[in-house]
Amino acid sequence: MDQQHQDQITAILNDVDDMTLATQREDGFPQATTVTFVNDGLVLYFMTPEKAQKTSNIDKNNKVSLTVNRAYEKWDQIEGLSMAGIARFVNDPEEKEKAGGLMFKKFPHLASFIPAHDDNELAYIRIDPKVISVLDYTKGFGHAELVEV
Fold first, then answer.
1. Burial per residue of 31-59, b for 16 or more beta-carbon CB atoms within 10 angstroms, e otherwise
2. DSSP assignment string, the chain
3. pTM reported for the whole predicted model
4. What range does the domain containing 127 cover?
């Protein structure tokens, strides 16, 4: 991946709060879910209840796809990402603290939404992208470039 693509991808990730995450359900159907995320460069993190459907899906198949899109008013402003990646549960205490710190820095109001209970009931999930499609309509309608990580 060249520096220009990396800078564009990182800028989009830094600017957007939510992604649509696709996992595979046990019955084989895909499940798309909107989740709030943070990133450390190209690595994405999100938190979710341990008993959520998406955590069960990831536990059985850690291959995920996702989209991240900047807000736009006109089609010639569309800029977004479509990624395929590998999700894994964060169990290392230092990485979990890092991910939580990134979440609270980006979303200071988060504390009021997390029930006062043991933090172990939340799953911290990391996504490492493998392939990224960079959608950039500022370069023309439907313009996309595939980038391998």
1. eebebbbbbeebbbbbbbeeeeebbebbe
2. --HHHHHHHHHHHHH--EEEEEEE-TTS-EEEEEEE-EEETTEEEEEEETTSHHHHHHHH--EEEEEEE---SSGGG-EEEEEEEEEEE---HHHHHHHHHHHHHH-GGGGGTS-SS-GGGEEEEEEEEEEEEEEEGGGSTT-EEEEE-
3. 0.90
4. 3-148
- pLDDT at residue number 114: 64
At CB < 8 A and 24+ separation, what contacts does 91-98 make? 95/124, 95/126, 96/124, 98/40
For residue 90, give both structure tokens: 């964060």
Task: Count structural domains, the chain.
Answer: 1
Domain harbouring 58, CATH code = 2.30.110.10
pLDDT in tens, 11-59: 999 999 999 999 999 999 999 999 999 999 999 999 999 999 999 999 9
pLDDT in tens, 99-135: 989 998 999 887 666 655 555 588 999 999 999 999 9
